[in-house]
Amino acid sequence: MYSIIVVPPPTTEDERTRTQFRLAPGERLPFGRSVPEGGLLIGHDGVSRRAGEITAHGVFWTLSNLSAHQTYVVENPEGAGEHIKVAPGRLDAPVPFEFSRIVLPAAGDLLPLEVWAPRHDYLRAEDGTDGEPTAPAFSVDRTKRYFAVLAALCEPRLRGTPHAPLPTVEQVVERLRPGWPAASRTSVQWNIDYLAVKLRLKPGPETAEAGTRLNGKKESLVAMALRFDLVREDDLVVLSAPPRRVIR
Amino acid sequence: MTEPYAVPVPKGYRVGGWEVRAPIATGAFGSVYEARRVGDEGSGLPRTAALKFLPTGTGTPRQLTHLRELVDREVELHRRLRRPRLVRMYETLVVDDPARPGLDGATVLVLEKAEGSLSALLSAVPRPAGGTALIAQICEGLVQLHRAGWVHGDLKPANVLLMSDGSVRLADFNMAAELEGTHAYTPAFSTPDYTPPELLWSEIGERGRRIRPSADVWAFGVLAHLVLTGSFPLPGGTPTARRDAAAAYARGTEELRLSPELPEAWREIVRACLTRTHAERIGTDALSRRVAAATGKGTGTVASVLPRRARSRRLALAAAAATAAVAALGYGITVRGDGGGPGPGVPGAGSTATNVSAASYGARELRTDKGVPAAYRLLIVETAHDCDRKEVSPPLIAAMLKVESDFDPDLSDPAEDEYGIARWTPKVLRWWMNEDGTPGETVPEPPFPPAESIPAMGRYLCWITPRLDAGLPGDRRVLIAVAYRTSYDKVNDAGGVPPKYRDYADRVAHHLKEYTPPGRT
């Protein structure tokens, strides 16, 4: 029932296996150089012992800056420089981004701490005539990169035959590069992983090898997106224009 | 993805044997219109119905691949399940009209027409009295659905319909799913305020969301709290805030604080529905017993002779009229006056309600001066209303009881193996004893009180009616009575009343005429 995911800063030894913290609404995650058990330990001398605290709400989260002198900046990595500043001592500042990077200044280093808020809701049914709307379980932002990735994955099946083979990650990178010059294998893969979290994909039985798992994940994402009309043929326009400039 | 999508259908448009009248509602998947039957084809259909248009055609501007699946779910449920507390579907039609690409290929569900929905009723000020009776009937609907092995998946006020007689029907089965073992798979849609915490942000597989009947039980708890207090059980000013509160409650960081307005008898029921985990939640059968007990309170001793269904129906009538059912005899029955009465959705607004006693219950349909015992009038009238065949009328049931037993509830005839007011043979009664249409687990043993005998008789008569050949000579109602005494096969084979049963038939015909009010047939 988690609604917020915190991804700790990378450390050299476990770059590939960073533990994610999944927080349910109301849960708090303290972070710093010396935190109580269950908190997020950041082993860097430039970070305060109690540096701050993240509190999860349903669709957003709040940041408390417990340091004495440092201002924290929370960036929206897909927001073209969009950011907010949280001054020292500020408690429970709400953060509105779906993806955020808290940048912790630490004695000359900048440590990125990522926070995802995958439960953001977007405009949907208002069957205004009679009572509350029956809402779909998914809510996607058609301006985000993950949507472009999903559209690229679905494209062959939307345009061609229902059983067309899925594009490889490399093909997706090529397909998206015109509108997203920085696209890379890693960033596309990151978005596929994020989509699996966002759409709450049930892990399939095929979790044995890395290769098949990846394939299974893409298959499941596409099957679900097409079944629930998350991506329709009209949406493929996101592939022909820079994702940022799509008019909703 | 699911913007409300109105299917525009002009007034006067003909589809099948129906003519479209005023629009009723538009939801996320289509539009509902009032319709009236034109022409006589398809007799047995009501004069008015609600037509649900779902844009499944290929020419519609919006192509939804999953709409087909949602439609199929609803149609499948209606085909396989017919229960008193579930809205009825009479037929499905497909629009064939190439001149209107927006309509061509649309699926049309012809449904029982309601007066309004619980959602409309809840917005009425002041809050209508008699909410407990409505809740009891919603609970009956859930029991009927769950016993048949289905989960509703989207129980909320807008999907609870109120009929013109004040009774309740569950509707909108787009999310309904048949259980596979302990789970069912439903499309990934839900209404946040009625979604149990374990399904908030639950994992979703390619087959959809896995849900259990306990999801409906949670929704029922929310609904009961809402009807009885006017507020949601979880705090918050928006569905999102309440969803967070539900999540915090499920995690154990918050307690459940029910409204102080919630009557004591209902606190434990609502609590048993709104448990943190699905495993702790009360089962549907246990829930229905508690609801029946809570609803039965204060209705007096007469209540005990009435079956649960009739009792709650009576209270529902009271609810519809928004007046308390109080009378000196404890028979306090309030019915809506003749004609249209209060407007849809706001029963009681016009206050055409009249208070009648048991002795005159259903007087428009069953004469009060010909010796039908007052104690059985309610059962007789309501049993007849539960059957949508016009032949199965209060006078017919009364006439049959008169001929079978002279209204003797204690009749015992071991020589013929027949017992009670309706002269049931135990091994036959077994097939009709349960309200939900399932046979009894064992052959029941007498005594068979009227509260069981009469509704069972109604169910059997309702089943017989369509099985009698068309064109048999004589009064069809009398033929139904004879088929009850012998069997519909024997009546069909004999091409009418078999000679052996002429005397029985004559007596039923005599009392039928006697009990029918003047001016009615």
Description of the structure:
The complex is a heterodimer of chains A (248) and B (521). By secondary structure, chain A is an alpha+beta fold. Chain A has two domains: 4-116, Tumour Suppressor Smad4 (Sandwich), CATH 2.60.200.20; 145-245, no CATH class. Chain A has helices at 145-159, 169-176, 185-198, 210-227, and strands spanning 4-7, 21-23, 28-32, 40-41, 52-56, 61-65, 72-75, 83-86, 93-95, 99-106, 109-116, 135-136. Chain A contains four helices and twelve strands, in the order E-E-E-E-E-E-E-E-E-E-E-E-H-H-H-H. Chain A starts with a strand and ends in a 21-residue tail after the last helix. The model of chain B is unreliable at 297-356 (pLDDT under 50). The relative contact order of chain B is 0.07. Chain B is of the alpha+beta class. Chain B contains 15 helices and 18 strands. In chain B, the strands form six sheets. Chain B has a six-stranded antiparallel β-sheet, with helices on one face. In chain B, strands 7-9-10 form a three-stranded antiparallel β-sheet. Chain B has a two-stranded antiparallel ribbon with strand order 8-11. Chain B is globular and about 70 Å long. Classes of the chains: A alpha+beta (248), B alpha+beta (521). Chains A and B meet through strand 12 and helix 4 of A and strand 13 and helix 5 of B.
